[in-house]
Write a structure and sequence with these properties.
Low-confidence stretches: 1-9, 214-221
Number of strands: 15
Largest sheet: 8 strands, mixed
Distance between the termini: 34 Å
Strand order of the largest sheet: 3-4-2-1-5-7-8-6
Helix content: 25-40%
Mean pLDDT: 88
Radius of gyration: 22 Å
Strand content: 15-25%
Number of helices: 13
Structural class: alpha/beta
Order of helices and strands: HEHEHHEHHEHEEHHEHEHEHEEEEHEE
CATH architecture of the largest domain: 3-Layer(aba) Sandwich
Number of domains: 2
CATH class of the largest domain: Alpha Beta
Length: about 375
């Protein structure tokens, strides 16, 4: 395929070529597929795709699949996707069995075993349950199964929802130590202002976010903005990410072979550990502390713990062990961490110098957020 046939409108840079070529080395791949891409013979095509890229069990594959609610809407005879939470949960419950049946049949015809894994945000927000989920996924992969992960929409409410399966996929990526994440949907990738595919993103803030819009689909919930944010988070966990069109024949295999398709986001050189990624991007902050300039510099430049003397104020209501945002004097969120104190105790000792018990956040529980 020539560059013009691939839809390029600029020369391919050497770092992009190297990044594309390196995708073939991925040994653990997460594939997220959206609701709009699951229709007709999509399950059969996806089964064929997974069978090919597994290369005789040399490469493991985890699927993050939407589709339960859309199938449930049809099964229940509803005219459109409901907005009421109870009806959304009912549609999810009705559709999940249909979704798994289709995966069972399609993958079974190719000699592959699938296993259903349903998660809520509360599952991954709890460290013990996170480790249990990690262990279960590892055991399934060792058994040769293809895990099919979906949000447990039948019980999920606003407080325990991931938001959409793009975000779930970005959390699953470090959970199973994946090398590569595919976000497959009904678009060929991130598009520029002229409607042309952007093959490679070097800066999410400068290149991708200005081009990402909101979802206009009445079927799925995640738009391009969600995919871009999911890609950013997964790259920080050390995984390459490709946003591509599910309808394109053999899309995953061709990209793994180095073909210039979709939009690629390369993994950062220094990945965040799974635990720190969990602190920064899975847990939801329960409050915030405002730190002075000296403390902000010590946090960002020297990875120091946050001491009471550097705290200017406290927002929200949190308990020891809760996730909190760290905000500098200009109001910028510079870090996230696990508080060692309650909001009341942190406010009481803020700005004071104490000989003991003055650590608000220990450096081992602190993650400096990357700034592009």
């Amino acid at each position: 395929m020539t560059e013009s046939e691939a839809g390029l409108h600029r020369p391919v840079m050497e770092d992009e070529r190297a990044a594309r070529a390196g995708l073939s080395k991925a040994r653990r791949v997460v594939i997220k597929i959206g609701s709009k891409s699951l229709s007709g013979d999509a399950w059969e095509r996806l089964a064929a795709e997974v069978a090919e890229v597994r290369e005789g069990d040399k490469r493991s594959v985890i699927l993050v699949s939407s589709g339960a609610i859309a199938l449930g809407v049809h099964k229940l005879g509803l005219k459109s996707r409901p907005k009421d939470m109870a009806w959304l949960q009912a549609a999810a419950a009705a559709g999940q069995s249909v979704l798994m049946q289709r995966y069972e049949e399609a993958f079974g015809e190719r000699g592959m075993m699938v296993a259903q894994v349903l998660l809520t945000h509360a599952d991954l927000a709890d460290r013990t349950r996170t480790n249990n989920a990690r262990g279960a996924l590892q055991a399934l992969l060792e058994a040769g199964a293809v895990p099919i992960i979906n949000e447990n929409d039948a019980v999920a409410v606003e407080e325990i929802k991931f938001g959409d399966n793009d975000q779930l996929a970005s959390m699953v990526t470090p959970l199973c130590s994946a090398d590569l994440l595919f976000l497959l949907s009904d678009v060929e990738g991130l598009l520029d202002k002229e409607g042309k595919r952007v093959p490679f993103v070097r800066s999410v803030a400068r290149e991708a976010r200005p081009l990402a819009g909101a979802s206009t689909s009445g079927v799925g919930t995640g738009g391009m903005a969600s995919k871009v944010e999911a890609a950013r988070r997964a790259t920080l966990a050390g995984a390459d990410v490709v946003i591509a069109a599910a309808r394109e024949p053999r899309i995953v295999a061709r990209i793994l072979a180095g073909e210039n398709l979709g939009t690629m986001f390369a993994a950062v050189p220094q990945r965040i550990s799974a635990r720190k990624h969990w602190i920064a991007y899975t847990l939801r902050p329960r409050g915030a502390i405002l730190v002075d300039r000296g403390a902000a510099e010590a946090i960002c430049q020297k990875q120091r713990s946050i001491l009471a003397i550097g705290v200017l104020g406290v927002r929200g209501s949190f308990l020891p062990g809760d996730s909190i945002s760290i905000v500098d004097p200009e109001g910028n969120e510079i870090a996230r961490g696990l508080s060692r104190l309650s909001a009341g105790d942190a406010a009481r000792i803020a700005g004071t110098k104490r000989e003991e018990n003055d650590e608000v956040v220990h450096r081992d529980d602190l993650v400096v957020l990357p700034r592009e």
